[in-house]
Design a protein that fits this description.
heterodimer; A: about 475 residues; alpha+beta; two-stranded antiparallel ribbon; 15 strands; elongated; B: about 230 residues; alpha/beta; Rossmann fold; 6-stranded mixed sheet
Chain lengths: ~475, ~230
């Protein structure tokens, strides 16, 4: 009989014990994958929000600008510079920005804001401001209208939770409000119709602004209202201007949503008295994996004349990366504890299995089975336990993860406010299949391998006569 | 033809508190097709002697030579291989492999010796018929009586045509009828297969059937009666 076949039969000689052990591996893998997927998914989401809303993956700046964001650290944008960056095959566009701070005011309300001068068309390649324009908004008036409509009771009851909420698309509204696909056909047309928000955009040379949804709520302004900005211009000049609010955007990073004012880049330069200048040139890239970014920093760095330099997204988001590293480590400690519990469970099984089969091991070696072959049979048994546990754990985790990926957990109420206070979007998406799947499986496989050492060692040192007396 | 030779074999268990001379200066020969019983009171060294003959334990001094091979000269893995090819074992507690059927138990050693499927099947069917369990070939040990299990164990011991079979108290756990049936089968196979059987036993029926009775006392051979 082949070793693998014998191992398989041995596995089921004590079904309950095998199932309990497989079950422990299953739960370890299942929970580890879910926990890790949530954790990594949340990080990934936050990075994307910040990178895609603000920093981009690569920027060219004056060497002092990142540490001291004053417009005196702006630089001249020349055709030669544009040509240099576009010469890299991975750069699809060079997107100019001119950013600084100002005091925004409307009526009696005032707020410190981040003024970002952007190219309205080119910016769509990066932070896609156009895609973040609010399309639907649930204000008091349209919530009352919705309550009177014939939408199902379960959705009507929760409508107040979404008072003041804005949505950039019909699907985001559907997901955030927890509307099932089944119900969407009847509810969404009503919702879309009643909550439609007639938004606008701007063009280069237009004295208009787009502002964050939260900021608009704070300043109590809407489309067509005037926003007054006062700040310090280039080399100490005074910057002051009035801008028509052309659109409201919803930035997924709440902190940014609360303070962002977009102006066309030429208007922004004019406002700050810095014609022809930029504070950063953001590179729109085709491939955004880390190795490619490292290559580009190394390739572009020497080609750009000082005092300019190339910054990668890691350098621009160092604080966030450090915070997430610390959080990730605490998550890994939790998983480690989970694995420790599982390791002892597996080891307990191995101890029992070895003790109760001592006599059988003795008989098998007595009748002529080599110890190496016997050890192989036992190792395959453990391998089966590991494999069954890992495979079932992955099989059970996959649908949950894919569901969580397409339907992220969205917090509401106080929990949502708490998240937003920390500058995070109150959402916890899952990360789909990635390297962490392999890692979790590898860790369990290693635990099983370590557990195998005990019976293999016992078999190698077996004293047949003593074993036969067991 | 001589299949087994013991020359001044001694086995001493030398613990920190106990010093036991379990087998003392035993010199014996066994020939092809012998049906021998080793008898003696409990603690006389029967099982120890059988373990030494089977290469399951090593003598403190002396030589055990099977078909010209001195067991003491073999390395651990060589000894396992040697046992597989030359010695069959029947244990008091049957010791069949619980996850294998009767057929698989019988062909187990042949599989280890890499016999072909056809050869294995022929030999297994022949032996299972001989022990009267052909109809039960697909039963697992847990579904068989003690007597049936011991018959399968006999078939397993004979499967690869060893030089001799060592049976340690094979009838001790069996009822009278099963024990008699088993002994008749073993005697028949001994006659047909010309394989030497060496028993350690207390059972008078085994002694009665044996062609040779070796009596041990305090580890020493006190008598060696050969019967025609």
């Amino acid at each position: 009989m082949k070793s693998y076949k014998m191992s398989w039969r041995n596995l089921w000689r004590n079904k309950r014990r095998t199932l309990i052990t497989v079950g422990s591996v299953f739960f370890a893998v299942f929970f580890a994958l879910i926990m890790r997927s949530l954790q990594l998914g949340t990080y990934d989401h936050m990075f994307r929000n910040v990178i895609e809303s603000y920093t981009g993956y690569l920027q060219i700046q004056h060497e002092d600008f990142w540490d001291n964001k004053i417009i005196d650290n702006a630089f001249s944008y020349t055709p030669a510079l544009e040509e240099t960056v576009l010469s890299d095959k991975n750069v699809s566009a060079a997107v100019p920005r001119f950013e600084s701070f100002a005091l925004a005011s409307s009526g009696a309300l005032t707020k410190g804001v981040l003024v970002m001068g952007i190219d309205p068309e080119k910016e769509t390649l990066l932070s896609n401001v156009k895609g973040k324009l609010v399309k639907f908004k649930l204000n008091e008036e349209n919530i009352e209208s919705l309550k009177k409509s014939d939408i199902p009771e379960k959705y009507r009851e929760n409508l107040d939770l979404y008072k003041g909420k804005s949505f950039v698309s019909s699907s985001s509204m559907m997901i955030e409000m927890g509307i099932s696909v089944k119900d969407s056909a009847s509810i969404m047309p009503v919702l879309r119709e009643l909550s439609y928000f007639k938004n606008g955009y701007f063009k280069m040379g237009e004295n208009s602004a787009l502002i964050g949804d939260k900021m608009a709520a704070f300043l109590k302004v809407g489309l067509g209202d005037t926003l007054v900005l006062i700040g310090q211009g280039y080399h100490g000049t005074t910057a002051a201007g009035k801008f028509r609010i052309a659109g409201i955007v919803k930035i997924p990073a709440p902190d940014l949503d609360n303070k962002i004012v977009y102006l066309p880049v030429d208007i922004s330069r004019e406002f700050y008295n810095a014609p022809g200048m930029l504070t950063s040139l953001v590179l729109s890239i085709r491939k955004n994996d880390d190795s490619e970014i490292i290559r580009m920093i190394a390739a572009l760095g020497p080609k750009i004349e000082p005092p300019l330099r190339v910054l990668g997204w890691r350098e621009m988001n160092e604080l966030m990366i450090n915070q997430m590293d610390a959080d990730s480590k605490s998550g890994m400690i939790m998983i480690l504890i989970l694995y420790m519990v599982i390791a002892f469970g597996i080891f307990g099984t191995v101890l029992m299995m070895t003790a109760e089969r001592r006599r059988e091991f003795g008989v098998l070696v007595a009748v002529g089975m080599q110890k190496t072959k016997l050890a192989t049979v036992v190792a395959i048994e453990m391998f089966y336990i590991g494999l069954l546990g890992i495979a079932s754990g992955i099989a059970a985790a996959l649908p949950v993860i894919f569901y969580g990926y397409s339907h992220p957990i969205r917090f509401t109420g106080e929990m949502a406010s708490m998240y937003e206070d920390y500058g995070m979007e109150p959402v916890m998406p899952f990360l789909p299949v990635d390297w962490y799947f392999l890692w979790q499986s590898a860790v369990v496989a290693i635990i099983v391998l370590i557990a195998v050492i005990y019976p293999v060692r016992k078999i190698s040192k077996i004293q047949i006569v003593n074993s036969l007396k067991a | 033809m001589k299949v087994l030779e013991l020359k001044e074999v001694n086995k001493i268990y030398d613990g920190s508190e106990v010093h036991v001379h379990a087998v003392s200066d035993v010199t014996l020969d066994f020939h092809e097709a012998e049906f021998a019983a080793i008898v003696g009171p409990s603690g006389s060294g029967k099982t120890t002697l059988l373990n030494l003959i089977g290469g399951l334990d090593m003598p403190t001094s002396g030589e055990i030579i099977i078909d010209g091979t001195n067991l003491s000269k073999l390395k651990s893995s060589q000894l396992i291989d040697f046992r597989m090819r030359n010695i069959g074992f029947v244990f008091q507690a049957y010791n069949l492999i619980p996850v294998l059927t009767a057929k698989e138990n019988v062909e187990f050693i042949m599989s280890l010796q890499k016999w072909s499927r056809k050869e294995r099947d022929e030999r297994t069917f022949e032996l299972l018929k001989a022990v009267g369990l052909f109809e039960r070939m697909n039963s697992r040990p847990s579904k068989m009586s003690g007597g049936q299990q011991q018959r399968v164990a006999v078939a397993r011991a004979l499967a690869s045509r060893p030089k001799f079979v060592l049976a340690d108290e094979p009838t001790a756990n069996l009822d009278s009828k099963s024990a008699t049936t088993l002994l008749e089968i073993m005697e028949k196979l001994n006659h047909e297969e010309k394989i030497t059987f060496i028993f350690s036993t207390h059972d008078a029926r085994v002694v009665k059937m044996a062609h040779r009775v070796i009596t041990l006392e305090d580890g020493k051979v006190v008598s060696d009666d050969k019967r025609e």
